[in-house]
Specification:
The chain folds into 2 domains: 246 residues, Type I PLP-dependent aspartate aminotransferase-like (Major domain) (Aspartate Aminotransferase, domain 2, 3-Layer(aba) Sandwich), CATH 3.40.640; 100 residues, Aspartate Aminotransferase, domain 1. Helices cover 40% and strands 15% of the residues. The two termini are 15 Å apart.
């Protein structure tokens, strides 16, 4: 296989590999799993930690409430959300757990998802439904997925008179598809169905306007594509200060009336913790602003498109969606020959030092590749060469 053409990171766009902390000998195509924090953001994170340790009482008891409010305001402006509708949580799975525990499902209720949802989210709803004698229903969304109508019609086929909530991804974890969620949210509102959006992969990878989107609940990670430190995420409630969400941990803030917001009181003081990851979210926003992130994302998508096409040329297998930023951004999934999956798993990391998921799903084999600002055409070439060698008879 010939090398991919250069130019995906051409022009005035800087190549940002030196801004991250990776070992030099690896190709990291797995940003979607745990993200990576740029040096300036990680330094801001450590500064907050040192400031906390210099005077913990001063920091936590006298300053933290205002500091969190400032960070929430920056995050709200970034995500198109009223700050009074946001609270920080450790990760998106935590956020879905909060909603699932707060809905107070009744026997016979149904929660509808798809067969593209994150495994931990599936487990969360199965647990909540088991506790309340309700049902978690996963409706199949077949691939290739080619139109918004195809998605909405397939999802709505799973709706019944018992459907209490719809819980779907904005960008799916196992298939990296951008779901067209707006028409689902609008239709659900008309039907009186609660919408819960798992936006784990959305912030930093696609633009957000949460107030306009209209979901009842939306949870997203800042520590993935926004590149904040690990343990920084948010939960959005359209009801804002009067939200009925209950914290997973009840502590001094619960129903205290301290801030005038039930949402803030219940979630902002849940026991002693290190808030440095939350407070570093503005530094992550600043980093992306200073590095012209719309251009970075466009360049990453262009490289992803080239690599996706090269993989299809090698395997001859059908893509799961059109080659469009409407369906995927910086992360994509490509089919692999099922009979070579084990060989790929056994060799891509130990032999080629390429960190990338390869997995089986519904009797097919796939790889999920994440392209971030530190990746280059050379990384893509290295993957293509490795794939060609491992699939060779």
């Amino acid at each position: 296989m010939s090398a991919l053409p250069n130019g995906a990171f051409s022009g005035s766009l800087p190549f940002l590999s030196d801004q991250f902390l990776f070992d030099e000998d690896i190709v990291y195509f797995n940003h979607g799993s745990f993200g990576a924090c740029p040096r300036p953001v990680f330094e801001a994170y450590q500064r907050w930690q040192r400031e906390l340790e210099r005077q913990p009482v001063e920091f936590i008891q006298r300053r933290l409430e205002d500091l969190l409010a400032e960070a929430r305001a920056r995050l709200g402006a970034y995500a198109g959300a009223s700050p009074d509708r946001l609270v920080f949580v450790p990760n998106a799975t935590y956020g879905v757990n909060v909603v699932a525990r707060s809905l107070k499902l009744q026997p016979g209720d149904e929660v509808l998802g798809t067969n593209h949802e994150y495994g931990a989210v599936n487990n969360t709803w199965r647990y909540a439904c088991q506790v309340h004698d309700a049902r978690y229903v996963t409706t199949p969304i077949d691939m290739p997925l080619n139109s918004a109508d195809q998605f909405v019609d397939a999802l709505w086929a799973g709706v019944t008179e018992r459907t209490r909530a719809i819980s779907i991804s904005h960008i799916t974890s196992p298939t990296a598809l951008i779901f067209p969620i707006k028409p689902v949210i609008d239709r659900a509102r008309e039907a009186g169905i609660t919408t819960v959006i798992d936006g784990a992969h959305a912030p930093g990878q696609i633009d957000l306007a949460l107030d306009e989107l209209g979901a009842d609940y939306y949870t997203g990670n800042a520590h993935k594509w926004l590149c904040a430190p690990k343990g920084a995420a948010f939960l959005y409630s359209a009801a804002g200060p009067e939200s009925l969400l209950e914290p997973l941990v009840v502590s001094h803030g619960w129903n205290s009336g301290r801030s005038g917001s039930r949402l803030f009181d219940n979630f902002s003081w849940t026991g002693t913790m290190d808030p440095s990851a939350y407070l570093s979210v503005p530094a992550a926003i600043d980093f992306q602003t200073e590095n012209d992130w719309p251009a970075v994302r466009a360049a990453c998508h262009a490289l992803a498109s080239e690599l996706r096409s090269a993989i299809q040329d090698i395997t001859g297998l059908e893509p799961i969606c059109p080659d469009s930023a409407e369906w995927y951004s910086q992360m994509f999934v490509a089919r692999l020959p099922l009979d070579r999956l084990e060989r790929l798993r056994d060799n891509l990391w130990p032999r080629y030092r390429i960190e990338v998921p390869a997995f089986e799903r519904d009797g097919e084999a796939f790889t999920r590749i994440s392209i971030q600002a530190y990746n280059s055409p050379r990384d893509a070439e290295r993957f293509v060469d490795a794939l060609s060698e491992l699939l060779r008879d």
